[in-house]
Specification:
By secondary structure, this protein is of the alpha/beta class. Helices cover 34% and strands 20% of the residues. The protein folds into two domains: 151 residues, 3-Layer(aba) Sandwich (Rossmann fold), CATH 3.40.50; 171 residues, 2-Layer Sandwich (Dihydrodipicolinate Reductase, domain 2), CATH 3.30.360.10. Strand 4, helix 4 and strand 5 form a beta-alpha-beta unit. Helix 4 packs parallel to helix 5 and helix 5 packs antiparallel against helix 10. The structure holds NADPH dihydro-nicotinamide-adenine-dinucleotide phosphate.
Length: 373
């Protein structure tokens, strides 16, 4: 059922054919947001209005439990543009200096941090201190120490910290995890994860060690790390890794271009993975057990995800990842719903601990032991 306000907005546009004005005086695009009849709605402010924030905001137009109501940005022209596009009132707009005042704004429940990786630590801790629930993009931080500080800060502030692990809600991925949990693949023996793309502009923040925290591993390799864990369903106990760099000008010290890594799991399974900024067409997961297999390709792109198992094609419907993610996160934050695979800060610290260990294994050439429990 639509709220009276939304009903009247829609009536005004369709029946009268007049453009509606938002509080900033701009005509706004019709918002298809339809709140759930019996569920509260998570009111979200997005921080860092870049390419991913745009994708999330567009996807949230179809959410039933989450609504974009505010923005935090260092670029004034983006703020006015977003006010117009998403009917965001002036009182819910902040820049990075005024942002801490969000604590006095009762109309915002959660802050979703979509700034560069190296800024997540500061931005998440400030959002927590303002008493807001926090959603942060991956990688949650640039190392496990920072990640733990963020988890602790959120605990201390009494707020929850979730991380944008959108694949944990993707229907075909969820089906493979369900089949593995049911024992349909038997004893899991092997996982292969290929994650990579050819990165362009050498001046972008993704190739800046301070802002990115590393290179391909932080940005795209993390999908194979996280995927190995949710596909196998165990936590790795060791890691080995090898780096190759063909362009040291573009990929400077501390910015990894290509790393191959292997993870060993307590049940005996091994994961063999590739993370790269130098090759396209690398987005594939393969899981093998003694009774069957699952293959996802593409495995982590925006979709549709495609895949099959020894039983045939996976036919679950494609749902825009960020729409389902935000509705499910609203249910986690508002109703205490438990996701199939965790999406909290502790989950992210595990990935960051593995990344730290991969970098250590590259540096030392040694196998590095992991203790994630
Ligand atoms: P963009 O560069 O497109 O956007 C980042 C935004 O952060 C900028 O537009 C800017 O917004 C703000 N910002 C604040 N300080 C800085 C700074 N010093 N340098 C650059 N930007 C700054 O990046 P993406 O949107 O692609 O990535 C943002 C985050 O989202 C990253 O952590 C990334 O890993 C993650 N991501 C996750 C994806 C997923 O599928 N889950 C996919 C893509 C990205 P403003 O001008 O409003 O301040």
């Amino acid at each position: 059922m639509q709220s009276r306000r939304h009903f009247l907005q829609n009536l005004s546009v369709t029946a009268l054919g007049l453009p509606l004005l938002n509080s900033a005086g701009f005509p706004f695009e019709q918002n298809s947001f339809a709140p759930a009849a019996d569920g509260a709605v998570l009111r979200v402010a997005l921080m860092g209005l870049g390419s991913y924030a745009n994708r999330v905001a567009d996807a949230m137009r179809d959410c039933k439990r989450a609504k974009l109501v505010g923005v935090v940005s260092g670029t004034p022209s983006k703020i006015t543009d977003w006010q117009r596009r998403f009917s965001i009132p002036e009182k819910n707009c902040y820049d990075y200096t005024s942002f801490d005042r969000i604590k006095d704004n009762p109309e915002i429940d959660a802050v979703y941090v979509t700034t560069p990786n190296g800024l997540h630590h500061d931005h998440v801790i400030r959002a927590a201190r303002a008493g807001k629930q926090v959603i942060c993009e991956k990688p949650m931080a640039i190392n496990a120490r920072e990640g733990r500080e963020m988890v602790d800060a959120c605990k201390k502030a009494g707020v929850q910290l979730l991380v944008g692990y959108r694949m944990h809600f993707e229907p075909k991925t969820v089906e493979v995890i369900r089949m593995r949990q049911n024992g349909e693949f038997g004893k899991i023996l092997f996982f292969q994860g290929l994650s990579g793309f050819r990165i362009g502009d050498p001046s972008q923040w993704r190739l800046n060690k301070t802002l990115a925290g590393g290179g391909a591993m932080m940005d795209i390799g993390i999908y194979s790390i996280n995927g190995a864990r949710y596909m196998i369903g165990e936590e790795p106990v060791w890691v080995t890794a090898q780096e190759t760099k063909t362009d040291p000008q573009k990929f400077k010290e501390g910015v990894d271009e290509t790393i191959q890594f292997q993870l060993g799991f307590p049940g005996g399974a091994v994961a063999s993975c590739l993370s790269t900024y130098s090759m396209n067409n690398l987005d594939k997961f393969f899981l093998n057990g003694d009774k069957g297999f699952a293959e996802l390709q593409p495995a982590t792109g925006y979709g549709p995800i495609e895949g099959r198992t020894h039983k045939g094609l996976l036919t679950q419907p494609h749902i825009t990842h960020q729409t389902i993610q935000m509705d499910e996160m609203a249910a986690i934050l508002l109703d205490g719903k438990k996701p199939l695979v965790p999406v909290d800060g502790e989950e992210a610290v595990k990935d960051l601990t593995i990344i730290d260990a991969i970098y250590q294994a590259v540096k030392t050439g040694q196998r590095v032991a992991l203790k994630l429990h």
